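Example S7 (structure tokens).
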């Protein structure tokens, strides 16, 4: 089995990195994602510091925040929300208990898995959802052909910030390309189909950031 904690990177175990994580991520607003989801139970895979999970606690009866990093989960636990369960696990090891989830959310975490394991992770996500349940997936996904790689990545790197305390620098983005497992859109979408999902909506920003709303087939 793949070691998901190792693939997540040692910085996710560093309380100093975790303390500045939301700032570096740009403090993403989960309201758009939450507006698309409903039901009683939602699972947040790769929950990080819990920006989505904590906000989801106002909307869902049960929120399961799953992350491989104990340092990340400690931040979520500190919010003291009774309907948020923290589970130290990953895409490949989380075992869902209780009634099937109505929704699964994951943001900028699936790219930590190579494609073989992404396909298995998506199959496992489908297994924890009720029929008709929704997957909201945000990630760094490449919406271009291999021959366009140099020009697209150059444009992406040119938009990077210079201060690593407030965002991702050119070096950060280059390291992502070298060491992470972001995949092409035209590889990911057949994986979603094979896992039993129908893509209801997809939006891309800058040809590298994808947001998918997918429904488990009945």
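Recovered sequence:
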């Amino acid at each position: 089995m793949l070691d998901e904690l190792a693939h997540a990177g040692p910085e996710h175990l560093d309380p100093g990195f975790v303390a500045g994580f939301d700032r570096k991520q740009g403090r993403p607003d989960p309201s758009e994602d939450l507006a698309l989801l409903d039901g009683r139970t939602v699972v947040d895979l790769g929950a990080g510091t819990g920006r989505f999970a904590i906000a989801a606690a106002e909307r869902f009866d049960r929120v399961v925040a799953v992350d491989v990093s104990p340092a990340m989960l400690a931040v979520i636990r500190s919010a003291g929300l009774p309907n948020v369960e923290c589970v130290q696990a990953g895409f490949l090891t989380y075992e869902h208990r209780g009634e099937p989830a109505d929704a699964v959310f994951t943001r900028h975490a699936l790219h930590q898995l190579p494609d073989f394991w992404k396909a298995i992770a998506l199959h496992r996500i489908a297994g924890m959802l009720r029929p008709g349940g929704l997957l909201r997936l945000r990630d760094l996904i490449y919406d271009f052909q291999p021959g366009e790689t140099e020009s697209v990545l150059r444009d992406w790197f040119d938009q990077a910030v210079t201060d690593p305390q407030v965002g991702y620098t050119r070096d950060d983005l280059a390291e992502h390309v070298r060491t992470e497992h972001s995949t092409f859109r035209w590889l990911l979408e057949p994986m979603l189909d094979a896992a039993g999902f129908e893509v209801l909506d997809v939006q891309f920003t800058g040809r590298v950031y994808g947001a998918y709303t997918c429904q488990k087939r009945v």
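Notes on this example. The chain has ten helices and seven strands.
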